[in-house]
User: What shape does this take?
Amino acid sequence: MDICGELVKLRAPLPEDAPFMADLISIPEVTRTLDAWAHGPYSIQHALDWINRHDPSQVNWAIDCLEDGAFIGVTGLRDLDFRDRNCEWGIWIGPPSRWNRGYGTEACRLATAFAFRELGMEKVYLKVYETNPGARRAYEKAGYRVEGTLPRDHWWEGGFTTSHLMAAYRDDPMYGGGR
Assistant: This one.
């Protein structure tokens, strides 16, 4: 299911996205704030394996820039818990020239709204590293609030850094107050 905003379109990842994924994941600035999976060689085959994997506990989208149609990243919901009605949201966008343009904030809003309206989730949460203040600001613009802090949680560039747990709720007015 495609989801269109004003800046980006979320759509199913396709095999033809694999070379772009591999190229973007090879950019150190893109991967430096991602989890361990992104650190190390990431080939076109790795991207194809991810695209072709069918995991019922996840919903993933490619992110296209509406201005020029370019593939600029991936976003998704994982650990879908239909009993407790919550899930985790994640994203990566590249190259860095695509940052600070509102793409991440809009992708966050679109995916979060999907979680509430289509999947019936009550809460969507994420983890953001203290070393990524721009991402934290984007998530706050999308209605996320810090709910907890995990000191020395993530090994980053030769030392530990703090992580913040953030969440958005379906009754937030940004998401229709639960309707």
Summary: The chain has one domain: 3-178. The beta strands are 3-4, 8-11, 58-65, 71-81, 86-93, 123-129, 145-156, 159-169. The first helix runs from residue 18 to 25.
